Amino acid sequence: MQRLQYIPTAIAISLLIANAYSTDTNAITNIVGGHNIQIDVVPHQVAIVLREKLLCGGSILTKKYVLSAAHCVLETLDISLIIHAGTSFWAKPGSIHHVESSTTYGASENVDVAVLRVTEPFVFDKKRQPIR
What is the SS3 assignment for 61? Predict the structure, then answer.
């Protein structure tokens, strides 16, 4: 129950990061757009990839769940999505996790939340951590 208190913060951070991405995914090399940063500073940050192109960012919630924006995944098949974690560069994945399922809440101006479940759990270390 204590982890639920972090969800509003995680949602806000994920939405800010998702909005920072350009529509031209081939031009982006870093997971966190706009400036260079090492992943151990933001170890909760992941890249959501579809067909070898960056789709959106997300935040690790637990060993099996990632938080992102609903508009990023509404029109995709869950099995097509891949999560890259533990790296500052989305095209050089530290670890790859396939999405098992997703639950979306809205995709409107008021609610734009997706919770993704991965098939294999994240192994937490200095580059992969749940958001705090």
Answer: coil
Cα distance between residue 55 and residue 77, in whole Å: 13
Sign of the C-alpha dihedral, residues 104, 8, 15, 93?
Answer: negative
Element spanning 55, H or E: strand 53-60
Burial 47-65 (b: 16+ CB within 10 A, else e): bbbbeeebbbbbbbbeeeb
Digit-coded pLDDT (tens) for 86-124 = 998 877 878 999 999 988 887 666 788 999 999 999 999
49 touches 81 (CB < 8 A): yes
Mention every residue, 6+ apart, whose C-beta is less than 8 A from residue 128: 43, 60, 85, 86, 94, 95, 122
CB 46 within 8 A of CB 83: yes
Look up tokens 């982890």; give the residue. 3
